[in-house]
Design goal:
Strands 2-3-4-1-5 form a 5-stranded parallel β-sheet, covered by helices on one side. By secondary structure, it is of the alpha/beta class. Helices cover 29% and strands 19% of the residues.
């Protein structure tokens, strides 16, 4: 492509962005319940992560800050493999960036899940 040709516009319509929900479980649960109603979305337990063997459209990781560094590395490896096009929806009870700065949370995983952040408060 030479300099006179325009590149086609980049579109996010084909892939949904990853989402990080920060807040208490009572605030994030309604969102996750709606997502989990879809048969193409799987859940990954942060205390003992079991990643799907097949490519799925969405993966929910509740309490992502509880993943061990080894579990975080496994998740990043999975995302870099066939799961690359999988949308990740992660929840956390606290901001992850300070954990990244202290080396307690993988910067590679943080980069992947930190596309859109929603901070949620307790429902009233």
């Amino acid at each position: 492509m030479d300099a006179t040709q325009e590149r086609p516009p980049v579109s996010c319509q084909r892939r949904l962005p990853n989402l990080l929900l920060i807040g208490p479980d009572t605030a994030t649960r309604p969102y996750l319940d709606r997502l989990m109603a879809s048969p193409s979305v799987r859940a990954c337990d942060s205390t003992a992560p079991h990643l799907p063997r097949e490519t799925v459209q969405g993966l929910v990781v509740r309490d992502v800050e509880r993943l061990t560094l080894a579990g975080q590395e496994r998740l990043v490896d999975w995302l870099n493999g066939p799961g690359f096009h999988t949308r990740i929806v992660a929840t956390s009870g606290k901001s992850l960036y300070p954990m990244v700065e202290r080396g307690e949370f993988s910067d590679a995983l943080y980069y992947r899940i930190n596309m859109i952040i929603l901070r949620l408060d307790e429902p009233t």
